[in-house]
C-alpha cells in the first residue's frame, strides 16, 4: 500500500461491527464511515474509495469474550450480543471455527472498547449469553481498576480444555488465551494461572503448528507426526494420511500441500 493511503475491510456492516457515535447513536459498521453515494440504476455503492481523516480513538478499557457454543445456540447468542454493541464506543461480534466442527460447536467472539469500564450489569449480560455465568467458573475481579476475568473449562477424554472466557480492562492475555481456546489445546497445566494478566503465557505450551487443511483444521505438526507411520509410494501414503486425519477429503484445495509434505517426510521403517 502506498504511503498516505489507508485500508479498511469492507462488508463489515452493523451485523458484525458497531458502537456508539458521539451523540449516542448506534453506528452502522465500517461502510457507514465512507461516502453514502450509490449508482441510481444498479444501486452499487461508491464506498470503495474515499478521502479519510484518521485520529486515534482513546478507548483504554477493553473487553474480549470468546466461547464455543452448540451450533443450535450460536446464532441466537450472536443476535442478542448484536443488540448490546451500541452500549460501547466500539464493538464487534463475529463467528469463528470450522465446518463441520466434530462436536457441532460454533465459536463466538465479542470484542468491545470504551473510555470507561462498562457497567457490571452489561458485563453480566454478555457473560450469560456466552454461558460464562455459572458457578463452576474460575474468576478474578478488581472492580476498582475495571479488571475482570472468567474462565470456563470442560473436561474431555483428552484432558481439560478451555471452552469460554472473558477478559476486561487489560486484555493483553488474549495473546495466549485465545489460541488456547481456538486451537483447543490442552489446558491441564494452567490451573489458576489461567487468570494471569499480561501477554506472556504463564505456562509454555507447544504451538499447534501451521494449519494445512482448513476444512478439518489439520496442522502441519499433526501431518508430519502421522506420516512417520504411512508406508508405500506417494499415493498410498497420501491415502493413509487422509484416512487417519481426514485432511484433503473435502474441498481438496490442500492436496498439493499434502503431497509436498508426503515427499518431504519419509516413513520411518518399522522395527524388525
Ligand atoms: S482444505 Fe479443504 S479438504 Fe483440506
Give a description of the structure.
The chain has helices at residues 71-82, 120-129, 174-182, 220-227, 234-245, 255-264; strands at residues 17-19, 61-70, 90-96, 105-114, 138-142, 147-156, 159-169, 211-213, 218-219. The chain is α+β, with helices and mostly antiparallel strands and 272 residues long. Among the domains are: 61-195, no CATH class; 211-264, Arc Repressor Mutant, subunit A, CATH 1.10.10. Helix 5 (234-245) packs across helix 6. 28% of the residues are buried. The structure holds FE2/S2 (inorganic) cluster. FE2/S2 (inorganic) cluster binds at residues 213-215, 247-254.
Summary?
This protein is of the alpha+beta class and 272 residues long.
Record the SSE blueprint.
Elements: E1 17-19, E2 61-70, H1 71-82, E3 90-96, E4 105-114, H2 120-129, E5 138-142, E6 147-156, E7 159-169, H3 174-182, E8 211-213, E9 218-219, H4 220-227, H5 234-245, H6 255-264
Antiparallel strand pairs: 1-3, 2-4, 2-7, 3-4, 5-6, 6-7, 8-9
This protein binds FE2/S2 (inorganic) cluster (FES).
**How are the strands ordered across the major sheet?**
1-3-4-2-7-6-5
Ligands present:
FE2/S2 (inorganic) cluster
| % residues in beta strands | 15-25%
Number of helices: 6
- Mean pLDDT score: 90
- For the terminal residues, how far apart are their CA atoms? 58 Å
Measured on Cα atoms, how large is the radius of gyration? 22 Å
Order of helices and strands: EEHEEHEEEHEEHHH
List keywords for this structure.
binds FE2/S2 (inorganic) cluster; 272 residues; alpha+beta; globular; 9 strands; two-stranded antiparallel sheet; single chain
Amino acid at each position: 500500500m502506498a504511503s498516505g493511503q489507508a485500508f479498511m475491510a469492507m462488508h463489515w456492516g452493523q451485523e458484525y461491527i458497531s458502537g456508539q457515535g458521539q451523540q449516542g447513536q448506534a453506528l452502522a459498521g465500517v461502510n457507514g464511515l465512507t461516502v453514502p453515494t450509490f449508482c441510481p440504476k444498479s444501486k452499487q455503492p461508491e464506498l470503495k474509495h474515499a478521502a479519510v481523516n484518521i485520529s486515534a480513538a482513546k478507548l483504554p478499557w477493553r473487553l474480549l469474550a470468546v466461547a464455543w457454543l452448540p451450533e443450535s445456540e450460536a446464532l441466537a447468542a450472536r443476535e442478542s450480543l448484536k443488540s448490546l454493541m451500541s452500549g460501547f464506543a466500539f464493538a464487534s461480534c463475529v463467528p469463528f471455527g470450522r465446518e463441520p466442527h466434530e462436536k457441532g460447536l460454533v465459536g463466538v467472539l465479542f470484542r468491545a472498547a470504551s473510555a470507561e469500564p462498562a457497567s457490571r450489569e452489561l458485563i453480566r449480560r454478555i457473560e450469560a449469553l456466552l454461558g460464562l455465568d455459572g458457578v463452576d467458573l474460575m474468576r478474578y475481579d478488581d472492580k476498582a481498576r475495571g479488571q475482570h476475568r472468567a474462565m470456563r473449562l470442560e473436561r474431555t477424554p483428552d484432558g481439560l480444555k478451555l471452552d469460554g472466557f472473558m477478559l476486561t480492562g487489560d486484555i493483553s492475555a488474549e495473546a495466549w488465551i485465545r489460541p488456547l481456546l481456538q486451537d483447543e489445546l490442552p489446558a491441564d497445566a494452567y490451573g489458576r494461572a489461567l487468570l494471569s494478566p499480561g501477554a506472556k503465557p504463564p505456562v509454555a505450551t507447544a504451538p499447534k503448528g501451521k494449519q494445512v487443511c482448513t476444512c478439518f483444521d489439520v496442522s502441519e505438526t499433526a501431518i508430519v507426526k502421522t506420516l512417520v507411520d504411512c508406508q508405500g509410494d506417494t499415493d498410498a501414503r497420501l491415502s493413509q494420511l487422509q484416512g487417519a486425519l481426514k485432511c484433503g477429503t473435502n474441498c481438496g484445495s490442500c492436496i498439493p500441500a499434502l503431497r509436498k509434505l508426503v515427499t518431504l517426510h519419509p516413513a520411518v521403517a518399522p522395527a524388525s
